[in-house]
Amino acid sequence: MVENTDVELSEAEAEQYDRQIRLWGLESQKRLRASKVLIIGLSGLGAETAKNIILSGVKSVCLLDNEKLKEIDLYSQFLAPPDKIGENRAEASLQRARALNPMVEVSSETRAVDNLPDEYFTTFDIVCATGLKQEQLERINNVCRDNNKKFLCGDVWGMFGYMFADLVDHEYSEEIVQHKAVKRGPDDNEKNARETVSITVKRRAIYVPLQNALSADWRKPELRSRLRRGDPSYFVLKILLRFRDEQNRNPDPAKRKSDTETLFRMRDELVKELSLPSGFISDELLTDVYGVVAGAAAVVGGVIGQEVVKAVSQREPPHNNMFFFNPVKCVGFVELYGQ
Amino acid sequence: MVARVAGVFDEKLTEAIANSKILVVGAGGIGCEILKNLVLTGFPQIEIIDLDTIDVSNLNRQFLFHKEHVGKSKAQVAKDSALSFNPNVNIVAHHDSVISNDYGVSYFKQFNIVMNALDNRVARNHVNRMCLAANVPLVETGTAGYAGQVELIKKGLTQCYECQPKAPQKTFPGCTIRNTPSEPIHCIVWAKHLFNQLFGEEDPDQDVSPDTADPEAAGEAGASALSSEGTTSGNVDRKSTRQWAAETNYDAEKLFTKLFGDDIRYLLSMENLWKKRRPPTPLTWDNLPGKDDPPTQHSGLPDQRVWSVHECAQVLANSCKALQADLAGRPEGDHLVWDKDEKSAMDFVTACANIRAFIFNIPTKSRFEIKSMAGNIIPAIATANAIVAGLAVLRAQAILRGLTAAATSVYLRPKVNHRGQLFVPEKALTPPNPKCYVCAPKPEVGLACNLKSLTLKDLTTAFKDGLNMQAPDATVEGKGLVVLSSEPGETDHNNDKTLEQIGLNDGCALLVDDFLQNYEVRVRLQQEDDEKSWRLVTDTDAPMPAPKEEEKPANGSNGSNEPKPGPSRTRADSESDMEIIEEDDDETTVKPPKRRRTEMSDEVVELC
Ligand SMILES: [Zn+2]
């Protein structure tokens, strides 16, 4: 999907990217270097994602945000300096984002996504969206899908976080390690005469759009059986997206008490709606969902960053299609929804 | 100040953070990330310590550093960058080794939590002991490629960093290196030894000339070889390689002729070696393969092209000149330290390893590949570091909240497991190993050796390398007799005496103590006539807690209760050698206070 990968790396690039080339190979690095990335939403998660993608050495990153920098952003948004409160978050982040890696073109866009035409999103190879409402996410996802562009989205609320990926029809290569017997001299015995060789295989993954993943039918037995595994993170995401859609904002630390009550009420409604076991979604998971906690943003931003690298380099199996970080158990897992 | 905005955390955590003091050990990839998370979260008092300076190959992940910082102190630049995120926190930066008398037990006691972001085992072992001695919770972190882990170490509650024997360092028999290499790594190790013989710290265990004591060649071969080659190699071998090279003014052709001509012919004369092996082919300087080859088309990085033998010889000549000049510019008695990031040092090893590989019919490799192997590089990437550092700080928050029992180890897997998990937490804390020779209430370990041949100097090495002590003192149990003293000069006169000569016998116990680490261990001596060096013996009667199955992706895969290996152990299984560490330049955060070590610590050569 990414073009212009035939140009050799400069000496400076080879030097700076030495370690990651040793991990994912020169071809991947060339593909990264040719790819254009759009990051929507410069909260703490957007900053973490931008950092990882810029460091990886892509061609360009555009930071899109129409919101102003607020004090609460500073809990995790390290790209925007504290003295820029009140300025546009994307613009305030530009200088530090560029300093991360001068070999990457970093630009900003301050228009709201609703004011941008569909064609805007198709000028990128991959779009990562955070902080949007479900409807906005679905629109951009569908535009990308129709134009065979990759789409990722994610969010962090307090310590909880998720990621969704729609890589449409994704081809990738995967390295598989095999053990091969070798014998060169009498010193070689059974044990040391084995050599690991890695072979590369081509694979393909088919994705579904976000609306399918978010409208999974929990009455179906195959999903019902998933409840037994006992992690309610999918439902926590549903509740938090619903809160954002209904209230037009995220849970507010200043209204911690009343917002927690609202969240509990929304939880109870969802439990009833989907006939979930009572107590399945613990209070604990809905109490640490305020602001963007730096550690959680680092964790989810790390996962999204790595998925962008995998997606554009077409190397190693990307997650299909939802990742959740459950901070109560400190578990991070991938599940497929909507297929 | 933590509550920039009240209500992000509950009151208890908000207050615990406001009153906390954290030590971050290491300002590399994970250290930068941890520091950022702590500062943003509002941890008010942080100290960070790192010995290292910034290198350009750090910039792809150590995001607090930029190009203009190359060469500067990591700790200091990390502090300055992090303060720009939140000027209201207090950060103290130490451009220093954590292994120093300046950071004793009382220093460690002032912190609520210590967070390790180190890249080597020596420093990890040391901080482990300091935190046990100071009874401070230690959050230990590491990554290797896409994988990583976070582990809490708390005295009496969890296993410590040294509770499980770690996979041994990869070792190669000396005769394989010197006489019968069969893999590229054997030639690379040889080339690094050659570097040290010529320019580095001379070490008799790193001899690069043919080994006539090779048991396989025993008998006639050695003797006949000596008599036929007596004048050339015989004389040369009696001189040190360094002295000989200096006398020839590091003449590349002479060096080449000795190493790749004469020495190879000498090996050929040890006929027993080649009965079942393909014999090596000696080379002559002015007739090397590849001399008249036209330049080949190469795609990929320049370093990924494999040089011809002729090119290797040219590179050898050029790098030799550069290294000679470097050495000449240093004060008398000083030496070079091999470093994979020094161009000439890396060129020299690539050229010599490949020439030797060609001679022995072993595939030659590119400079890029040899750098990975010679430099022991485990690639580190920004994303894995970010995830592990994020998990580490969330774990630290849980500990401050009083949820220590729930702060179990978490593993970041390179790929999801069968349950779809990418971050896999352990179900419970792993309790301490009661037989651990570090954290048990009365630490004890056996030392198998031949008391008739092991010298007191060797014993010091066993305590330093085997027991990871920095400055051991040893007395005989029940007698109070001082065998070893860390005070310079006190017991040095006994260095060359054997243990038997100073009156130690089988079953005798030593109390060995490291003052800095506040660590004492009882060492039982076990006579073994066949032991050529020494070997630690941990108690095998009570099995250690087995590691949980697949939740240990990379580290600690060797849960069996094997004796802890000393240098004389047989070759390690390479599958179990991977330890989770953050790659950076080896040993960078370690500077043992009293002695200087070369960077050669990643392989150990066995005596044959
Ligand atoms: Zn222990």
Strand residues, percent of chain B: 5-15%
State the total count of DSSP E strands of chain A.
10
Indicate the CATH class of the largest domain in chain A: Alpha Beta
The separation of the N and C termini of chain B measures 63 Å
User: Helix-strand pattern of chain A, N to C?
Assistant: HHEHEHEHEHEEEEHHHHHHEE
CATH fold-level label of the largest domain in chain A: Rossmann fold
So what's the oligomer here? heterodimer
Structural class of chain A: alpha/beta
Helix content of chain B: 25-40%
Bound molecules: zinc ion
Poorly predicted runs of chain B are 220-237, 541-608
Quickly give the structural class of chain B.
alpha/beta
Strand order of the largest sheet of chain A: 3-2-1-4-5-6-9-10
Number of domains of chain A: 3
Quick one: CATH superfamily of the largest domain in chain B?
NAD(P)-binding Rossmann-like Domain
CATH-scheme architecture of the largest domain in chain A: 3-Layer(aba) Sandwich
Q: Which overall shape of chain A is indicated by the principal axes computed on the Cα atoms? A: globular
Topology:
The complex is a heterodimer of chains A (339) and B (608).
Chain A lengths: L10 H6 L1 H16 L2 E5 L3 H13 L3 E5 L24 H12 L4 E5 L8 H4 L4 E5 L3 H13 L3 E8 L2 E7 L2 E13 L12 E13 L3 H5 L6 H7 L5 H15 L8 H18 L9 H5 L6 H20 L8 E5 L4 E5 L4
Helix pairs in contact in A: 3-4, 3-12, 9-10
Chain B lengths: L10 H8 L2 E5 L3 H13 L3 E5 L24 H10 L6 E5 L10 H5 L3 E4 L4 H14 L3 E7 L2 E7 L17 E3 H5 L5 H15 L21 H19 L2 H7 L4 H18 L39 H20 L14 H17 L7 H8 L7 H19 L9 E3 L8 E5 L18 E6 L6 H11 L5 E5 L5 E3 L24 E6 L4 E9 L6 E4 L66 E3 L2
Parallel strand pairs in B: 1-2, 1-4, 2-3, 4-5, 7-16, 10-14
Antiparallel strand pairs in B: 5-6, 6-8, 8-9, 10-15, 11-12, 11-13, 13-14
Subunit structure (chain B): Heterodimer.
Family (chain B): Belongs to the ubiquitin-activating E1 family.
InterPro entries (chain B): ThiF/MoeB/HesA, ThiF_NAD_FAD-bd, UAE_UbL_dom, Ub-E1_IAD_1, Ub_act_enz_dom_a_sf, Uba2, UBA_E1_SCCH, Ubiquitin-activating_enz
